[in-house]
Automatic annotation (TrEMBL):
It is an enzyme of class 4 (lyase). It catalyses: Eliminative cleavage of (1->4)-alpha-D-galacturonan to give oligosaccharides with 4-deoxy-alpha-D-galact-4-enuronosyl groups at their non-reducing ends. It comes from the Eukaryota. SMART domains: Amb_all (SM00656). Pathway: Glycan metabolism; pectin degradation; 2-dehydro-3-deoxy-D-gluconate from pectin: step 2/5. Residues 151-348 form the Pectate lyase domain. Its cofactor is Ca(2+). Belongs to the polysaccharide lyase 1 family. This is Pectate lyase.
Length: 496
């Protein structure tokens, strides 16, 4: 009997250790991403320092004699002040890549690559794109800095699927991207999208689309996002105007990280921005996003952003309208709100900036949501929680992030430069989700899957690997049964 008992005890010990190691390894891979920053607070402080330095330069120049060009360019906005003060910026367009801040500051785009001039606004062939079109440019394997020969409206036939190391630079032209699918950044890295209008994006798909010069494949139906970011990193979206899309204006899901969304103008939309695939997708705990110097304007309802997991820094934005809430979240995201202006609607039931989505207060009371130097207008109020209730962030506050008093100056150029900041004059055909609009059914093979528990393996396309897979309950059960069967077989052996 003793040998049997010893074998049984050893078996249970082996089972416990094996499963413990298995769960620990799975938790480790699900809770971290290879490219997330190990100290997000350091990134936050660097953003604050860059803002304070730009504001100081502006203040120092104001009392002195005027300097040609300086009065128009120095705003205190560190991104714009980095390049707009150079009257010859067009001769050195790629300097823009040095101007990013926040978690997406390392996005190179097409820096170091050749310039590709888009001369043709058509989008006829998804499998063999015409040279000179935007679709032909973004699928190339080499780094490219993509500019436009003239102003144009590019009406997409299906999703515009990017390859890595690309910059869309719309400066000097009035560029509109609209139509079916719009922009997809899936399993790519180092993309900059700058100074373009994106609107009226509709679901599309169930067709073959090329993603690289050597690969084309079947795409299911897309959601109709303006910009869909999936399993991607080092992404910078700057000076864009987004509105009237079917699903989200910008969605980032499936382990995407190292993202900055800045100087953009959001209008006329219900669910503006989703960060995180679903509450159960643990890899999104490594998502890190900076949202800076944007204007959230007319006709917006909610999700500015709506966060699942991750670390989200919302800094120096102007929120002038929402109908439900501004910032929402679930599954314990960290929300760091600094130096924003929140102007509440007249509706007395919609004054709160924050919303914990479908979560009991006993659960979210420990979530780290904090407000620092924000300005609350017309009865707006932010409900902090967790560590955000304490004063332990004195180190971060010591670099004076409270620049919300300068919010007009910091966001004065949000949107597309050189023309109307929003898309209100450009909307000529339907398809956008507006107040109270419902989303069309997209079937079971949605490409972005941002709203539910979509199957990632039905969405793999183009180069790059899938994000870390999650530990599934069936896998755990099978492993346990195998070990138990081995133990039973050992117990059935005759005593030695």
């Amino acid at each position: 009997m003793l040998p049997h008992a010893s074998i049984l005890l050893f078996g249970f010990f082996f089972l416990t250790v094996s499963l413990s190691s298995f769960f620990s390894a799975a938790a480790f891979f699900n809770l971290t991403l290879p490219h997330q920053h190990p100290d997000p607070e350091a990134v936050v402080q660097e953003v604050q320092r860059s803002v304070n330095a730009s504001i100081s330069r502006r203040r120092q120049l104001l009392p002195g004699p005027p300097i040609i060009g300086q009065a128009q360019c120095l705003t205190g906005n560190p991104i714009d002040d980095c390049w707009r003060c150079d009257p010859n910026w067009a001769a050195n367009r790629q300097h823009l890549a040095d101007c990013a801040i926040g978690f997406g500051r390392a996005a190179m785009g097409g820096k170091g690559g050749r310039y590709y001039v888009v001369t043709d606004s058509s989008d006829h062939d998804m499998v063999n794109p015409t040279p000179g079109t935007l679709r032909h440019a973004v699928i190339q394997d080499e780094p490219l800095w993509i500019i436009f020969q003239s102003s144009m409206v590019i009406k997409l036939k299906h999703e515009l699927i990017f390859n890595s190391y690309k910059t869309i630079d719309g400066r000097g032209a009035n560029v509109h991207i609209t139509g079916n699918g719009c922009i997809t950044l899936q399993s790519v890295t180092n993309v900059i999208i700058h100074n373009v209008h994106i609107y009226n994006c509709l679901p599309s798909g169930n067709t073959i689309i090329r993603s690289t010069p050597t690969h084309s494949g079947w795409r299911g139906r897309s959601d109709g996002d303006g910009i869909s970011i999936s399993a991607a990193r080092n992404i910078w979206i700057d000076h864009c105007a987004l509105s009237h899309c079917t699903d989200g204006l910008i969605d980032a899901i499936l382990g995407s990280t190292a993202i900055t969304i800045s100087n953009s103008y959001f209008t006329h939309h219900d669910e503006v921005m989703l960060l995180g695939h679903n509450d159960k997708y643990l890899a999104d705990s490594g998502m890190q996003v900076t949202i800076a110097f944007n204007h959230f304007g007319e006709g917006l309802v909610q999700r500015m952003p709506r966060c699942r997991r991750g670390y989200i820094h919302v800094v120096n934005n102007d929120f002038t309208e929402w109908q439900m809430y501004a910032i929402g979240g679930s599954a314990n995201p960290t929300i760091n709100s600094q130096g924003n202006r929140y102007t509440a609607p007249m509706d007395p039931n919609a004054k709160e900036v924050t919303k914990r989505v479908e979560t009991d207060e006993r659960e979210w009371s420990d979530w780290n949501w904090r407000t620092d130097g924000d300005i609350m207008v017309n009865g707006a109020f932010f409900v902090p929680s967790g560590e955000g209730l304490s004063m332990q962030y004195a180190k971060a506050s010591s670099v004076e992030p409270k620049s919300a008093a300068l919010i007009d100056q910091l966001t004065m150029n949000a949107g597309v430069l050189g023309g109307p900041r929003d898309n209100s004059v450009s909307i000529s055909y339907g398809g956008g989700a507006t107040t109270g609009a419902t989303k069309p059914a997209t079937g079971g093979s949605s490409n972005s899957g941002g709203g539910g528990d979509g199957d990632f393996f039905g969405m793999i396309f183009g180069s790059g690997g899938a994000p870390p897979t999650q530990l599934s309950p069936p896998t755990t059960m099978i492993l346990s049964l195998v070990i138990i069967l081995i133990l039973c077989g050992m117990l059935s052996l005759p005593s030695l």
